[in-house]
């Protein structure tokens, strides 16, 4: 085809060409081909949608890796983006997802600010779900304790103690507050501010648990006293695990044989007693073979081990600390109620009192130490002895002397336990316990005055429903006769078996939950301090308070962290950062 060389009569020629059959066929084929392809706008929109899907898919992998690092308490960033744990964790995942390699190379969403924002969104989601459960529970208690972090900032840890519908006790971490001062007024205002931010009414607080510091437990201006002035139903419990520790400290100070063993672990004491002869032989060999400092130290240790006082002191220490350590473990459990704590203390005290005297230890040590001798007798001054020359008591044998030491120690420990665990506000909790047990055993119900005054606004028809509670116990027993109810847990288990009883006896259900709402210890707060030392160590000492709380929230609530919906988190992150 040569085409047109001149423009003369070109229009007429074009019109003739359009009527040609071949031209019409070619035009039809071209239009058909064009109709199958999307428009330019459609093509641009599809490309944008593909990029969005790619970014959403890649961005979803980043918070899932952050969730793992938060649950393990591991740092996210390093000195730069390539040295951080997040980048190093995403690299192996890129081997299974080639698109992730390009994502890491672009570095568009790997900055510190974006990671902090994602961590904050995860933490807020956990707290929102937690606070919803606390709002549904109604009653709650406050746990608080203070500590210093690695940069000597005074941190106040705050937890909520609450009970669900199945009578399961929960103690959940809420946050850490950097205290400018540690006086009671500052701490009280901080706790009130937390309640306001969490939208939790202060009037529903039914318990407080702190240590024995004057700013927390002072009976006039302490934090507990300030809360009770506002809400008398918020009874204060001094941490019972801390009371056990104070009992042992007082007993050790008054008994020199225990004072040096207070810092020993029970397993270490048992290992020394089980291998006493082997230890003496090792010290003897070291003392004879070595003429340096270590030989002299071995000689000094051997001289102490050869004394009966040392062996007897170790035996007494193991006796006391083994029993009280198990008591402390029981008290530190989250699901321990005040009723169980009191029973544990009584069982421990009774177990120690019923044990045989340890004067037989002198016979056990016959081949291990030197022969027992009586200590030197000291005559008291005349001015103390009222100026009369009386014959003072003297022990007839070493066995009688050590027997007296043994019973003196047990009496001292028993008195300390009775004094430390008898607190003023526990009377109200004991009244609730006695009220439930009395009604369960179909005895005469008497409402204590203190209980009526404290919980006058919580119950309306309690007396009538308490009379109906024995039928619930009989229904749950399924024909088995219950002789006598001695535990509150028996009543709560019966209410869980007969589910309709919670709707039929709502006042009893509320009273049971109120009983379990009263806190026992602040051991969970102490465990949060261990988490704080792991999260904010010397390598991460410069993190902000906001980031510290977000990381602590994820680390302390690992189960809730694993249930976090990462798709919703990334969607909220995208909506926050949408540019209009």
From TrEMBL:
GO molecular function: protein dimerization activity
Biased composition (Basic and acidic residues): 14-26
UniProt domain DUF4371: residue ranges: 39-222
InterPro entries per the UniProt record, alphabetical: DUF4371 (IPR025398), HATC_C_dom (IPR008906), RNaseH-like_sf (IPR012337)
Region (Disordered): 1-35
Record-annotated HAT C-terminal dimerisation domain positions: 504-553
Superkingdom: Eukaryota
Alphabetical list of SUPFAM superfamilies matching this protein: Ribonuclease H-like
One protein family per Pfam: Dimer_Tnp_hAT
Name this protein carries in UniProt: HAT C-terminal dimerisation domain-containing protein
Taxonomic placement: Eukaryota, Metazoa, Chordata, Craniata, Vertebrata
